[in-house]
UniProtKB/TrEMBL annotation:
This is Metallophosphoesterase. Residues 36-256 form the Calcineurin-like phosphoesterase domain. Transmembrane segments: none annotated. Residues 1-27 form the signal peptide. Gene3D superfamilies: 3.60.21.10.
Length: 307
């Protein structure tokens, strides 16, 4: 597998041909292949608040307007936001969602830690507010299956302070801290056993259907020393490693962006939109039979060449 930036600022992920996946092996065609394209936005993190450090919360509304206007110029199957639509305050959702209402492609949402930075009585209302029945979901477009995971389900922020699940999550984080794990942070979370079983079943179903898979989450899985990664990132990576038809894992959370490659899977961390006053990172991802390309806008991406 090779990974490189071309001069048009595309990150190209080359995928291996898979035995048993003849439809995805990149066979010659009489006509140029039409890729499946989708938009990616990470961490708008809007709030009606003054800037804090490098985070410009109010500026995210204009960035969303401009980014969505550009994404609407592309033929997209959908657009996914990789978590943290807001920074804090339940009232922040409405201005953000009204901007997303201008999207011409369906909007898929991954839950992030800041989406639950609301009062305890508002926490149970977050999923309904953003139009979700479940924090994790899957859907299929052509020969591609997409699995959106939810690592807020085990966390110190998802549920009210008095909820037993909050206490259990705090204890889990303390165990990680006792093991000197850098990701033992209150802004991270974990994927539960039932969801891991669901992910395994989704990947198994994708193999049976000759589909490649892209997994989207909020929190990074790799690199292994990233303090922003899931509490149980290793467990999720092991699931991915068992399924060579998983092409990529896409996430936000670490606003600086990142990249890792392990086995057959590429782990791409998109930059946070909130992180600057004017620069506006977002992307268009194109899925071909034999490769994935990521066209970055603004400071996404900054890496010039990877191999």
């Amino acid at each position: 597998m090779m990974l490189q930036w071309n001069r048009r600022r595309f990150l190209t992920i080359t995928l291996p041909a898979l035995a048993g996946f003849p439809a995805l092996a990149g066979a010659a065609e009489e006509e140029p292949e039409k890729p499946l394209r989708f938009g990616v936005i990470a961490d708008p993190q809007y709030a009606d608040a003054v800037p804090k450090g490098t985070r410009h919360y109010r500026a995210s509304l204009k960035k969303l307007e401009d980014g969505i206007a550009e994404l609407n110029r592309h033929d997209l199957a959908f657009t996914v936001t990789l978590g943290d639509l807001i920074d804090h305050d339940f009232a922040s959702f409405e201005p953000v969602l009204s901007r997303y209402g201008k999207l011409r492609s369906p909007h898929r949402i991954v839950l992030g830690n800041h989406d639950f930075d609301v009062t305890d009585d508002e926490k149970p209302k977050v999923l309904e507010k953003v139009g979700l029945k479940s924090g994790y979901q899957s859907f299929v477009h052509g020969s591609w299956r997409f699995a959106l995971i939810d690592a807020t389900e085990i966390s110190t922020f998802r549920y009210p302070a008095a909820d037993p699940r909050t206490k259990e999550a705090r204890e889990r984080m303390e165990q990680l801290a006792g093991q000197k794990q850098s990701n033992a942070q209150p802004w991270n979370g974990a994927v539960g056993t039932v969801q891991l079983e669901w992910l395994e079943s989704e990947l198994t179903a994708a193999k049976a259907a000759n589909q490649r898979v892209v997994i989207c989450g909020h929190f990074p899985l790799l690199p292994a020393d990233n303090p922003h990664r899931l509490w149980n990132a290793g467990e999720v990576v092991k699931v991915i490693e068992r399924h060579p038809h998983v092409a990529a894992y896409l996430n936000g959370h670490d606003h600086q962006g990142n990249y890792a490659h392990a086995g057959h899977c590429h782990y791409v961390n998109f930059k946070g939109m909130v992180e600057t006053a004017t620069d506006n990172p977002f992307a268009v991802v194109s899925c071909y039979r034999d490769r994935i390309t990521v066209e970055g806008f603004g400071p996404e991406p900054t890496r010039e060449r990877l191999s």
